[in-house]
Amino acid sequence: MMSIRRCIGSFTTRGCIPVPGIQDVLRLSTRCIATQTIPIMKRGSRRPNRHRDEKYRTARGNKTIKIDLQDFEFERRRYNDQVTPEELKERMKKLGMPPSSSWQEKPLYISSTGMVIDEYVPPEGDGKASIISTAGAKQVTDRVKGKGKTMQSIRKIRSYHDEFDPRDWVNEAEQIYIDAHTALAVGDEERMHALATEKCFPEMMFMAKRKTISWKYIKTLEPPRVVHARHAEIVSKDNMFGQLTVRFHTQQSLAVYDRFGRLIHGNETVAKDVLEYCVFEKHLSNIYGIWRLHSKIIPDWLLRSGDSGRLTYLVPKETPTEDQPKQKSKKSVDEKEEVEEDEAVQETLYDRFGKILKR
């Protein structure tokens, strides 16, 4: 309309008396109005109204987070003790929270016992005394005395494992013994956790850090055998543990080196006869329980090795004090006098009657 008025005003200002007709007005309006150059594209009914490449759709959706607002009405009713236990249980189940309880107990799992049940006492001179001798006969009689409890414990183990036979099981115990000590020499702690109990692991790893251990299992001098068996209930009757003591008489070699590569114990080339009583334990109530090395019984009569290992460490330098030189000088004077007296005695010769023959 503004363009038409401007055109009409231009006619009047120029002095054009005749009023333009309708065709002139339409012609002027089409010239003055801007034409539309981009046509409107109509979307078909089968063409979806979305972008052809749906990139970052998940990222755009993550911009908005749906949150559950706090139910103040429920909290008010709970504060006033107006909420029933059923409503509270349903509410906590919806939130994924465990129901509250009046006690503060937590579940406890006991994977092994921290002791040796009724520890086996090895007979003195075992591995050396003959059966014909008095010591050997005494060993046989002592073995018969504790055989009743051992058979009772073996029957208890068979109630959980029907095909258990201690005569065949000793081969498995020997393999566990070898694998556990091999893992200790290599330093494979993860493997040791599968072969040793929580009581035996720290005892085996004691003083083993920053040391090189060379251990070899050479041969078996006597076949291993089960000499002791016990079982016990921990906390409840359903939690049953079984322990078997196995006698090993083998030949091994051991060498321990410190962090500098110096030999501090044993020798790789020297093989020694080793008599050991190893205790194996299993969680009988656990269907996934396995036999693991639990402890070693060291009798009191067993001779201790004199070479227990020479540990290396740095000796700090001592700073001499004022009193130390005086003490050293006094000691040196006394020592000199004693040496002179000894020399004088050695140089003087006496006869059988005590007379001096020569000085």
Overview of this protein structure:
α8 (166-186) runs antiparallel to α9. The protein is 37% helix and 20% strand. The strands form 2 sheets. The protein has a 4-stranded antiparallel beta sheet with strand order 1-2-3-4. A two-stranded antiparallel ribbon has the order 5-6. β5 and β6 (356-358) form a beta hairpin. The protein is an alpha+beta fold and 359 residues long. Mean pLDDT is 79; it is low at 1-17.
Main sheet specs = 4 strands, antiparallel
* Arithmetic mean pLDDT: 79
Helix/strand-derived category reads: alpha+beta
The topology string of helices and strands comes to HHHHHHHHHHEEEEHEE
- List unreliable stretches of 5+ residues: 1-17
Radius of gyration: 48 Å
Percentage of β-strand residues? 15-25%
The count of β-strands is 6
Short characterization:
This protein has helices spanning 2-14, 22-32, 57-61, 72-79, 85-95, 134-145, 147-160, 166-186, 189-195, 200-205, 323-347, and strands at 212-233, 240-257, 263-283, 292-297, 349-350, 356-358.
Characteristic terms for this protein:
359 residues, alpha+beta, 4-stranded antiparallel sheet, two-stranded antiparallel ribbon, disordered N terminus
Secondary structure elements and their pairing?
Blueprint: H1 2-14, H2 22-32, H3 57-61, H4 72-79, H5 85-95, H6 134-145, H7 147-160, H8 166-186, H9 189-195, H10 200-205, E1 212-233, E2 240-257, E3 263-283, E4 292-297, H11 323-347, E5 349-350, E6 356-358
Antiparallel strand pairs: 1-2, 2-3, 3-4, 5-6
Helix pairs in contact: 8-9
